[in-house]
Amino acid sequence: MAERLQQNFFANHFAKVDKKLKSIVYDDSIAERLCYFFEGNDWMENKIEICHVDKYYGRKKALKNVTLTINQGMFGLLGRNGAGKTTLMKCLATLHSIQKGNIVVCGIPMKNAREIRTITGYLPQDFSMYPTMTVQESLDYLGLLSGMETSLCQKRTEMLLKRVNLIEHRHKKVKALSGGMKRRLGIAQALLHDPKVLIVDEPTAGLDPEERIRFRNLLCEVAEERIVILSTHIVGDIEATCEDIAIMHDGKILWQGTVSELLENAYGKVFTVNIDKKYLPEIKKQFIVTGMLVQNEYVTVRIISENMPEIGANPTEPNLEDAYMYCLYSNGCDVSGGV
Known about the structure:
single chain; 37% helix; 339 residues; Rossmann fold
């Protein structure tokens, strides 16, 4: 890369430059950025590359050879509690180190953690602020900590409070906010420095249906301009917001692709059957049950099976929850009892 810069760019762009400048030796990282600049490209790539990453907590291996590519827009990371999602999110936010592999965020390697933090916003699952501060004071305080100019911080705060629908609550104390309002304040603080990457970990857990929908819509809006990673165990959140997804289990990536591809994998594997309630325990022993509807003495059961069950079952279109459960099952995960 340095040789490419030396031979081509100074010759083409600086034909009359002083000979002393032509003799400067650049290391590869600086040379690569200059090449991007001279070619008229944006140095910041709009993607995240995770390559063969391992992470340990003592002797416990929390991440196991994780490899992912995440492009601009909404990306969903789906998995059970304890699957390793939060650990991976903290590694991407450079809050955790890794023992093996490599992570490159928008062209910046993980070893440059401070640089990654300048382009990354993070909303943790357990987000909290000083309870006696007001909404406005919280954002002012965070802007001060991040070294933002006062005028820029004020401008961004005004814009973000309008965007997250908290402008009328700017003088309300954090302890007086509802759960949904606190999550929206969390998004505002994560976007305060206008990051290229936004990481949100289990953002809708505990929210009522109306607030969950409002929050998901907000994430989709901000994803038009940046990479947004949504980590959750709630299938409905993924179904409503993401097309590109990955499924994580026991520290490993089981599957990556689109929602459509995941649904296609489960086609022909989902069935419904109407049975007497007394046979339900036996059905649960034989099949993966993903749903049921009780009607008096009968129950309509939704099951997953590799082959057509010989119990009067009818094939049906899979939904995302079916497809997720089938993915776990086909990868050898314990899904006894279904959902």
